[in-house]
Amino acid sequence: MKLCIVTHKIQKGDGQGRVNYEVAQEAIRRGHHLTLLASQVALELQESHQVNWVTISVKGWPTEFLRNMIFAIKSTSWLRKHRHELDIIKVNGAITNAPGDVNAVHFVHSSWLKFISQTTKTFNVYDFYQWLYTTLNAHWEKKAFRAAQVVVAVSHKVVQDLLAIGVPPESIRVILNGVDLQEFSPGASDSFGALRKRQKWQLPENVPLALFAGDIRLTRKNLDTVLQALVQVPDLHLAVAGNTEGSPYVQLAASLGLHERVHFLGLRSDVPELMKAVDFLVFPSRYEPFGLVVIEAMAAGLPVITAISTGAADLVTPESGIVLPDSDDTEALTQALQLLASDRLLRQKMGQAARLVAEQHSWTKMAQTYLDLFEELIQHEEHSSHPNLSSSSGSITLPFGATGAN
Fold this sequence. Notes:
six-stranded parallel β-sheet; Rossmann fold
């Protein structure tokens, strides 16, 4: 099979990029030939004799909007010339103007546009830019989804978003994102080991400690509600991993009298180790198609507090965490924080259950499901084009809701 993946990055350390990295590695393991239309590709993929990297350079363009536009134009031009050389094209959203056979959906801009239209009261220049960027992406995505044979949703929340914009249910597959079970693993069971790890980040010892990780420049991640709830849980401390530049939440924490209990650690590349030093994750995002940090925390053996508006909440069972029905319900979040902060034994039991759930969702299983889908599509094409087969055998069943990554 000649597979083409079209995406900005194909490498670890990037959510969508990691998904495509794992899919590429599984394709190589199965002996397929890969063409990668991307701006950045992991070195180990570049060195494979099965990989042809077509570099789509976007260097020098000043904004993400312009970089995406240039990427789309360049990739479309290449695909129009070489489409006949490929069996399957995997794209992500509206990344290119050329049709893809499989479109993997990590974010639905129409749903986010609806949310910000309902919640944003005033617009500054940056807000207007974000609104314009989201509006155009929402329009282009609808066209891209209609052009695909199969639309892969990374969660059941994304399924609902796709159905809301008219994507036929029979074209939808669900393949949940995965997690690195070695990189994210439970920390030392003894209290001394956890305390030693806290010293690395100058975090307080002998107190319950929650973790919030994400882009804290965005209101979407909902750190404001977490801080407001934290006021009512005086024994709990919070470690925050995220870029504080341009973030309003350092000032908000200070204004709420939380400067001694909220520890802003900046943007971190050592989150797997940080998770070994905390007691649970709190991540009630207002809109999150999946949320890798949720399954990563579960793999690290941490209980999770999240909200139904986060796609990865599908994975959180009552035994492994708490899912809030409303991300902005400060009272419900306060109760959840109080419960986990006050009960160490409950945290341990939930953490063990969370790890068991995460073990069912490795990156390898996710990648295998994608490759099974590609091979299924190829077999269907070969089957339907066979001259001795009846026309009734030319249909392919793509069951809505199938979760081969489980």
